[in-house]
Amino acid sequence: MKGTKRPIYAVTTWLRRQPPKMKAFLALLSGITALLFIRMVVHDHDNLFVAAEAVHALGISVLIFKLSKDKTCSGLSLKSQELTALFLAVRLYCSFVMEYDIHTILDLATLATTLWVIYMIRFKLKASYMVAKDNLPIYYVVVPCAVLSLLIHPTTRHQIVNRVLWAFCVYLEAVSVLPQLRVMQNAKIVEPFTAHYVFALGVARFLSCAHWVLQVIDTRGRLLTALGYGLWPSMVLLSEIVQTFILADFCYYYVKSIVGGQLVLRLPSGVV
Fold it and tell me: Domain limits at 130?
């Protein structure tokens, strides 16, 4: 066991010593490699989007287990859960009026479990809620997304209100995890179930991003024109990439912690 850990430790030590530009390059290279692997293994790339929502639901299930078993919500951000419920509710509305499919059912299930988590944090486990560390104002996240959705939204034939709401849920989903990252940065120590949940979010974001990128490649860019014209198609793709990179740093330290056999994740200063 020690023999297998030594090469991993050597690699992580080498990575830690690299300058930021080299780390960014290696992260980009790793992402491209993962995309190429997924493209070879997964033939129907629509399944990636379903898989992303399934992984998100799995992450929520981890939270439910934590709240039910440990009877504590320590380390969780109520604001992130509320932002998640908000963009899911808006996306559900858009799905009902614009495109009812399997994603609608998955979103409905995820919204129901998210609302249960919010109820538990607000009422049943309020005493363990780290309100002082959950200090990122929600309007810092919601207002920019609302303004951006008014300026850049789909150019389809749907009603303008529905198109703006569609854009709003896309932008909000990209940054809804920021309050949770702030809580973990303030606490510096992340207990296992919270770490599993945020890692699941990171995996879901990557799968969703891979879905869009591979769809654009497979259609040779025609997908972007199908989404409309102007800046909206590019903003959809950019939002997916932003979601992935927001969680990339945390996922690196999560994997490093798991490989090192640590149950509790300790974040160095400046992470997330």
Answer: 42-262
pTM for this predicted structure = 0.80
The type of residue at 110 is: T
pLDDT 10s per residue in the chain (272 long)? 444 455 655 665 666 665 656 656 666 666 667 766 776 776 665 677 778 888 888 888 888 888 888 888 888 999 999 999 999 999 999 888 876 666 678 788 889 999 999 999 999 999 999 999 999 999 999 999 999 999 998 877 778 999 999 999 999 998 999 999 899 888 877 888 888 888 888 888 888 888 777 777 776 666 656 566 667 877 887 887 887 888 877 777 777 677 666 666 666 655 55
Residues 196-219: b if buried by 16+ CB within 10 A, e if exposed = bbbbbbbbbbbbbbbbbbbbbeee
- Whether residue 204 is contained in a domain is answered as yes
Domain assignment present for residue 67? The answer is yes
Quick one: tokens of 150? Answer: 């008014």
In whole angstroms, what is the distance from residue 251 CA to residue 200 CA? 9
